[in-house]
Specification:
By secondary structure, this protein is mostly beta strands. Helices cover 0% and strands 52% of the residues. The protein is built from no helices and eleven strands. The termini are far apart.
């Protein structure tokens, strides 16, 4: 299984970025997927998840209303649209595949990460 993330970069506070994660080596429709992030000196934290079919999504409170996760089955890609970015959103962002439903299952595969830097 391979997860390839893209779309990270540097942006000013209030700006937007769109992260993408393309999966290969698995049956894309069978897996819930999510995004996590890890800032320097902090533990990795969950951000959002999307169900196998893409019809259910959930978000951590600190990104609700600003971030949107979606799944494109044809492209085998999960996307995280990030708007109204804040300096505290600066972190390495990781794509993840869950072993089952995204709220009750463990992550079984991780991407390599893409850096997001937001300047105040």
């Amino acid at each position: 299984v391979q997860l390839v993330e893209s779309g990270g970069g540097s942006v000013q506070a209030g700006g937007s970025l769109r992260l993408s994660c393309t999966a290969s080596g698995l049956t894309f429709d069978d897996y819930a997927m999510g995004w996590f992030r890890q800032a320097p000196g902090k533990e990795r934290e969950w951000i959002a998840c999307v169900s196998q079919g893409g019809g259910f999504t959930d978000y951590e409170d600190f990104v609700k209303g600003r971030f949107t996760i979606s799944k494109d089955k044809a492209k085998k890609t999960v996307t995280l649209q990030m708007n109204s970015l804040k300096a505290e959103d600066t972190a390495m962002y990781y794509c993840a595949v869950y072993g089952g439903s995204c709220l009750v299952s463990k992550v079984i595969y991780w991407g390599q990460g893409t850096q997001v830097t937001v300047s105040a």
